[in-house]
Design a protein that fits this description.
Layout lengths: L14 E2 L6 E2 L1 H6 L3 E4 L2 E4 L3 H9 L1 H5 L8
Antiparallel strand pairs: 1-2, 3-4
Amino acid sequence: MHQPLDMHSSNGGGAVDPVCGMTVDPDDARDRGLHVHHENVDYFFCGKGCKLDFQEDPAKYLAPDHHPHM
């Protein structure tokens, strides 16, 4: 299982997909169009489905009681 790091990029490290909790490479995600800038924060996603889910309801995935899971 991937270790959660931070929801956004962290200086050469990974980023955690806020929907499923997977650790992703921010540069790779950005290159693949799996990036969203929301309320001045960059979010990165493992795949199109997670990105679309986030865009549909960001508040759901950013809520303090949300626990990302696959």
